[in-house]
Amino acid sequence: MADKLANAVTGLILAGGAGSRMGGADKGLLPYQNRPLVAHVIDRLAPQVANLLISANRNLDAYAAFGYPVLTDSLDDYQGPLAGLAVGLSACTTPWLVTCSCDCPALPGDLVARLLATTEIQGASSAVATVAGRMQPTFLLCRREMLPALEAYLAAGDRKMGGWCREQGAMEVNFSDASAFDNLNTPNELLGLAR
Predict the structure, then answer these.
(1) Among 74, 96, 118, 132, which is least packed by CB within 10 angstroms?
(2) Phi, psi dihedral angles at 100 (to 5 degrees)
(3) What is the DSSP string of 5-34?
(4) Each residue of 9-25: pLDDT tens digit?
């Protein structure tokens, strides 16, 4: 599987949100254990993929300093993770793209391998992580060829990543460790996990 990942999957870290629940702060750059949150995500995701991209809409130089290409949304006004997915698929040069949020510092080390294995077994074009039956839609693996369908979905005004996953019939892959998907959406959550 490691050899297959070496040329099959591009990783995309979603860091382009408005951070409204963080008082407008750029979540990926907030400190967690003395490093920016996104640095922890890079550490976890980079070994799992052939190459890595970051989707961001501000502080572009700060994100670029991590050494990976930074993509900005083609849609204005923080349209959500699907806008980041669209630009990621546009830039993707591998058959598959996997996404993860910039605020999940403990994401599973076998995330990509398990999602990819499920798509191969099922002959599916996408797979999404679930925990205890609850979809984690920002942890999505999908084929690069899904871009036109996504562009049509966005053009229709839809913005929900979970809705996109369901509409595309993404295979659900259950992960037992819920803490691996803990994301930091509020200052209190950040403080709680940082203790």
Answers:
(1) 132
(2) -155, 155
(3) HHHHEEEEEEE-S--GGGTT--GGGSEETT
(4) 999 999 965 444 445 67
Q: How far apart are CA 9 and CA 153, in angstroms?
A: 23
Phi–psi pair at 86, nearest 5 degrees: -60, -45
Angle between helices 147-155 and 81-91 (to 10 degrees): 150
Which SS3 state, helix, strand or coil, does residue 51 take? strand
pLDDT at 16: 65
Which residues, other chains included, contact 133 with Cβ-Cβ below 8 Å and sequence gap of 6+? 174
> Which pair of tokens denotes residue 160?
């929900």
pLDDT band at 184 (very low <50, low <70, confident <90, very high): low
Question: What are the tens digits of pLDDT across the range 70-89?
Answer: 998 766 655 678 989 999 99
- Domains defined along the chain, listed by start: 2-194 (3.90.550.10)
Q: Are the beta carbons of 162 and 99 closer than 8 angstroms?
A: no
Q: Would you say 141 and 116 are in contact if contact means Cβ atoms under 8 Å apart?
A: yes
Q: Are 28 and 37 in contact (CB under 8 A)?
A: yes
> And the tokens for 93?
């040069």
